[in-house]
Design goal:
The structure is a single chain. By secondary structure, the chain is α/β, with parallel strands linked by helices. The chain has a single domain, classed as Alpha-Beta Barrel (TIM Barrel). It is about 40% helix and about 15% strand. It is built from ten helices and eight strands. Strand 5, helix 6 and strand 6 (about 115-120) form a beta-alpha-beta unit. It is globular.
Length: about 210
């Protein structure tokens, strides 16, 4: 089964990536918004080079066309993007797929797409954006864990202090945006996250998996 690092930061551009990657992160998502096609392609290419040099797994958010063209190895798709994506083309390019879920119907679609990981959120209340879903809570993590045979990523309102209980509840990895990008010292906060998740670094793939949904 695919192994994901328990700490999964999400950054808006390669400037952020260049700041955080020297700390030793091994998994990161590039989540670019509102950029021209030229800038977008350049950012993806730069991110691939940065991550390859540090042996960090890069995940491209949404832009699967550009990910294929750039030779990326992993994309993350929201539900709308999943519905519109050419999954056979993505698979032919040997690109793995992560999918966001918030309810059982979305989970079924993710599993039907044979997602390489499933993301669940928001776990806690979050101020990142207005969401139609309330906090999922720790019991929902345990439920999702029992329904899937792939890694589970938890996201939404998670801090370094909350990370151990989220991972203990059944998540294999914790995705983080706000707690890093709004920090006065993002590099130190990244180190705090790496320390908070260190005990789980080799644990997630050893956890018994469910029988599938």
């Amino acid at each position: 089964m695919l192994s994901l690092d328990p700490f999964y930061p999400i950054v808006p551009d390669t400037e952020w990536l260049a700041r955080l990657i020297p700390a030793g992160i091994k998994l990161v998502q590039l989540r670019i918004k509102d950029k021209t096609p030229e800038v977008l392609r350049g950012e993806i290419q730069n991110a691939i080079a940065l991550c390859a040099a540090r042996r960090c797994q890069l995940v491209i958010n949404d832009y699967w066309h550009e990910a294929i063209d750039a030779g990326a190895s992993f994309v993350h798709l929201g539900q709308e993007d999943l519905a519109a994506a050419d999954l056979p083309a993505i698979r032919r390019a040997n690109i793995k797929i992560g999918v966001s879920t918030h309810n059982h119907a979305e989970l079924e679609r993710a599993l039907a797409a044979e997602a390489d990981y499933v993301a669940l959120g928001p776990i806690y209340a979050t101020t990142l954006k207005v969401m139609p879903w309330g906090p999922q809570g720790l019991p929902r993590i345990a439920e999702w864990r029992s329904l899937i045979n792939c890694p589970l990523v938890a996201i939404g309102g998670i801090t370094a202090q909350r990370a151990p209980v989220v991972l203990a509840a059944g998540a294999d990895s914790v995705a983080v945006i706000t707690d890093i990008v709004t920090s006065e010292d993002p590099e130190q906060r990244t180190q705090n996250w790496l320390s908070a998740t260190s005990r789980c670094r080799n644990f997630s793939t050893e956890r018994p998996q469910g029988n599938g949904a």
